[in-house]
Every structure is written in structure tokens, then in C-alpha cells.
Amino acid sequence: MDYARLTDSFTEMTELLLPDDTNNLGRALGGAVLHWMDICGAVAAMRFAGNQCVTASIDHVDFLSPIDLGEVAVIEGYVFNAGETSIDVRVDVRAEDPRIGESRATTTSFLTFVALDEDGTPTTVPDLVCETANEEALRERALNQRREQLSDISDTLAE
Hints:
CATH class: Alpha Beta
Structural class: alpha+beta
CATH superfamily: Hotdog Thioesterase
Strand order of the largest sheet: 2-4-5-6-3
Largest sheet: 5 strands, antiparallel
Helix content: 25-40%
Order of helices and strands: EHEHEEEEEH
């Protein structure tokens, strides 16, 4: 296949925050959240590429809000850009309290994966196609937010 749609890559995972993944305050360990984000991103990349994908990089991550013991972590990812062998995935995490039906954003990051063939060699990936206005809006939002994030980081480094 020469192309794949953004919606073909959409992946949603849920994790119930249990004691093994919490710190002494009863909140999600950052490493557990990063692990979930990496898995969600990899599944989105594999759905898009039709091949095994490995993590090449994870952009800057800020933990904006905690996930508390007993809450549900909802992790969503989708491909928003593709290169020759690389795939960029936006991953959002939110905490949901199923008892009261409230949720809040906890973090967003951008991950890059590389598609591999059966021999473990980088292989070409399909072109990304956005067939609907909603897909194009999701793509543009991710591109713009990543650009802003990278600009903020380079400004901070220049200071």
C-alpha cells in the first residue's frame, strides 16, 4: 500500500492505576505513564506502517496533572507525520475518575518510531493521507503543537 490514513493509526488504551504503578503519594509513577505512552505510540505506528516499529525518540514530556490511585488512565495516539522510514505519533494521556465521570489532561508528547522489515532493517512507510477535515485538523494541531514545543525548548537552551 502506498498510503495510510490517519484514522487507520488511531489507538486508545486504558489502564486502571493500581498500587504497583504508584509512588508513596498514591499517584502514577512517571515511568509507568511513559511506558503506556510508548506502547500506545508503537501500536499506532505499527497499524500505520504494517510492520514492526521501534522507538527512536520521545520529545519533551511535562506531567501537568497527576493520575491518582483508582483512576483510569486513557492513552490515545495517532500518526500525524511520516518520513521515509520514520513515523511521528502524538500521544495524549488523561486521567478519568469513573465514579464521577470527570476527566482531565495529564500529558502530551510526540514520539518518533522507525519501521523495520523482517530482517530488522529500516523500511519505507506509506504516505500519510488525511481524507477528512477532522483528520487534517488533528494533523495540523499536532504539527503546530510540536513546532511550538520545539521552539520553546530551543529558546530555553539559548538563554
